[in-house]
Amino acid sequence: MSGLSNIQTQVQTQAQIQTLSPQQVLEARLLALSTLELEEHVRAELGDNPALEDGPAESSATDNEDAVQDDDLEYGNEEFGSSDNNRDDWGDDDDDWNDRQQGGGGPVADIPLADTRSFYDILYEQLREQDLTERQMKIALYIIGSIDNDGILDKDLQAISDDLAFYHDTDASVDEIEQVLKVIQEFDPAGIGARNLQECLLIQIRRKPDSESKELQEKIISSMFDEFTHKRWDKISARLELTKEQTDAVIAELVKLNPRPGSSLGETVGNSRQHIVPDFLLDNYDDEIRFTLNNGNIPQLHVSREYSDMLDNQIKEGTSSQKAAAVYIKSKLDSARGFIQALRQREQTMTRTMQAIIDLQRPFFQEGDETLLRPMILKDVAEKTGYDISTISRVTSGKYVQTPFGTFPLKAFFTDGVKTSSGEEVSVKEIHRILREATDAEDPGNPLTDEQLSDMLARRGFKVARRTVAKYREQIGIPVARMRKK
What we know:
Layout: H1 22-32, H2 35-48, E1 52-54, H3 64-69, E2 74-75, H4 119-128, H5 134-145, H6 157-168, H7 174-184, H8 197-206, H9 212-223, H10 225-229, H11 233-240, H12 244-254, H13 261-269, E3 280-285, E4 288-293, E5 301-303, H14 305-317, H15 320-360, H16 362-367, H17 378-385, H18 389-396, E6 400-403, E7 406-409, E8 417-419, E9 425-427, H19 428-440, H20 450-459, H21 466-475, H22 481-484
Parallel strand pairs: 3-6
Antiparallel strand pairs: 1-5, 2-5, 3-4, 6-7, 8-9
């Protein structure tokens, strides 16, 4: 019987596995690109595919019928303006895409140009001084683009590896990415590119000249970080066998460290938001919110008429060599058509998503008051548009909209809700505003602790735990109380 128990059997089962077609993969990649990245990608495609041409398609009176039939072979500066209503027929009501100019709904705002170096300009200048391969440079650029305004890399290295593979055709391991990250972490200001506060402080300490104090600082942050963040000075002193004077001296050095190196750099060169090219341009006309998709300097595209004619001639001749040439020409034509179709799909998806965000956050876009933002998550927009949550995430990641009230990342319009004692749900932005006002008005010599801030919110009708207050405080860049003390 023991032998029978080891018998292996094969069982055939059926399972449905969803795989993306090459066209769907292309559409997903284009959707994740910003305006500047898309322009670069389009120009690269123009150079690689001779069946794809720049500029409006040429047509004569005899070609008009064919031009209408080949409407899906052109891509140009279309109008993507919107009013209060969603549109389900983008591009289907007009055969001539090249006659529709971007911004037909009103004047298009100029793209803001940098008059000073931005936060990212400074990092890029330092990057160009490094002896990196083309592949390493590509990884480094993606890492820099993932660093937030505080100078922290808040993206997991595995996620960066996945994004590089999926969106940029670069198969980079986590170890390879980490090697490039270490190069960036040598940039100024010290602490840039750190993955968390602990690493940020350690990078700054290790830049200091060697001394006994430096060794103590590194030991505290590397092995007693929890005690440091909770200000358990007695435990630190006892464990390291320090006198009160030594403890006070080393703590005084540690609190001088900058937990937000990117933010301090931004204050000296201007807010980097001014130098971002927006993906959408929005304005209000007589209480009507209208917007356009910013195509920037992206070329108009069409499929080469010459290549199409060449394919017809090769097929008519029918010789073996000409059939081989026809296969090559057809592959290029199919690629050009697929690329143009993917661009049009990107426009439709981005436009519908932006319209859904406007519909859900209409009071803000009318008044420009961030406290009017209502709680909204990716699922809300997905339900309104009919797209998957992953699609909404791609549209909103790294994209910006220029409004009469400033330029905002689309992610800024997504916020959790907090319930008041009366049961009303308000946006976390309102909590952010209250926290800013409270800390701005506090006694610099006796700043409010997270516990005190939590109590203050409770008195105003918001039941928010101390840990949650700490999270909200960090989100808006307010340091802990001990670092605010003057």
